[in-house]
Amino acid sequence: MAEPILTVRGLVKRFGRITALDHADFDLRPGEILAVIGDNGAGKSTLIKAISGALRPDSGEIRLESRVVEFVSPLQARAAGIETVYQGLALSPALSITDNLFMGREVRAPGFMGRWLRKLDRSAMEDTARRKLADLGLLTIKDMRQAVETLSGGQRQGLAVARAVAFGSKIVILDEPTAALGVKETGKVLDVIREVRARGVSVVMISHDMPHVFDVADRIHIHRLGRRLCVIEPTDCTMADAVAFMTGAAEPPSSAPA
Amino acid sequence: MLGLIERVRSLLHSEPALVPLTILAVSVAAFGVVLGSRFLSPFTLSLILQQVMIVGLVGAAQTLVVLTAGIDLSGGAIMVLTSVVMGHCAVHYGWPTPLAILAGFALGAALGCVNGWLVARMKLQPFIVTLATWQIVLATNFLYSGNESIRSQVIEAQAPLLQLFGRPLEVAGASLTLGAGALVGLVALLSYVLRHTAWGRHVYAIGDDADAAELAGVQVRRTLISVYVLAGVICALAGWVLIGRVGSVAPTSGQFANIESITAVVIGGVSLFGGRGSIFGMLFGSLIVGVFGLGLRIAGADPQWTYLLIGVLILAAVSIDRWIRGLAA
To answer: Closest partner residue to A120 among B197, B212, B218, by Cβ?
Structure first.
């Protein structure tokens, strides 16, 4: 078994009297798609936010490639190679695909224009954008100057994922990537997620949608009452089993690691 | 037919300045046909540019703020106060004129910084912040100056540099002033910055969706403050140009520049919801107001017709913006 790329041990986060994370553990292996499921309020969002730097845990340890990391902002987590695609996607609808893909990481033109007049290298950015989208099988998008609001929901999700993996990230966290999509669009997005895995990037996917989870995930982390209840493989269990573990209606098999 | 309408809409979506440019061209042609050479003379057309110079400069500052989904009610007041400070420093305190001008720019930047800090750090609404600073700056202007003007002859004798932008500039037979040249130059410069630099794209992104921009890695607060500081500096430039335009330093001049600049921005197709529009649109918008004003005056109409028509234009511009943005849904 490969050494995990990301390990979390004993993470605790309290909000006043509410304990959102109660000594939670978490393991992500390189190049896998790990789904995180759990009932509302189980603490999976808090867990993901701690990993992505959006909030600081009270105690516990996060190791990225066996080095301890302490992120104080999402930008730090990103610099370390952990990208998060939020449910709102964080895209600017009126701006172009290229502008969005490079937002905050723009490329300046070489020479005098770039150095002194801070001119952006539009054509280089558009070429890169086209290549990155093509890599993930999003060839249906032709014009990189197209405004994002003219894209379909699935194309926007694809663009957000493309942005997350475009700059050499090791881990991509997807928050409900299929929540607002139709059947056909969902299929495309799941293909994009598999394509991301094929490129060696580890994927964490939070989802409520059991068919999608069982369709795409290599392993499923079940979160309950602020900690990891168990990790199952979609081949070993049924969706009904997973839901039963998640809601506490059934005990997880003793073989599953806790 | 429906396909054509959609094509037009999508074209306007990508080039929002086309609407005001068309209205400008049509209104110039219409007044030209009706009034003939009384309107279509180099003198009249350059007079329009002279008249919209101040509104256009404050409008440039306004455009930057509106693109971030804000609004600046204090721009006109900052312009007047900086012109008064430049005049006082140069004439009453005997400072070297360049230093007096620099003091005006520093004040403009500082006032813009206050606006920006309150908006970006304190998370106060731009409308409320600038409503307050508008009153404060305007009152300071009257208290500080004692409501006294500095006469044109005095400035000419002691600090002629203050009137720099009133100097003539011959362009293709038309007699303009350096101030009009400064306006066109500034608009061209800002257009480049907004379109072709990362800072410009961030300004649009913040107006479009500030939270999304933040999550994407844009330094939202820093960029917002820089926008308000730049707006203050541009208003100080407008203050300098104002001295060239009227000759004297008058604390009562430019009273409605804030409202007129918002009018220019809206007619110019810049969305008050932020993130959409172009700085050239604002220039066309201010020229439309100037063309209507002077055209109707030459035609001998009651000046109230100008205000009435501008009111109609504002409503039309906002409706068109709504329609273009409807493309998103």
So the answer is: B197
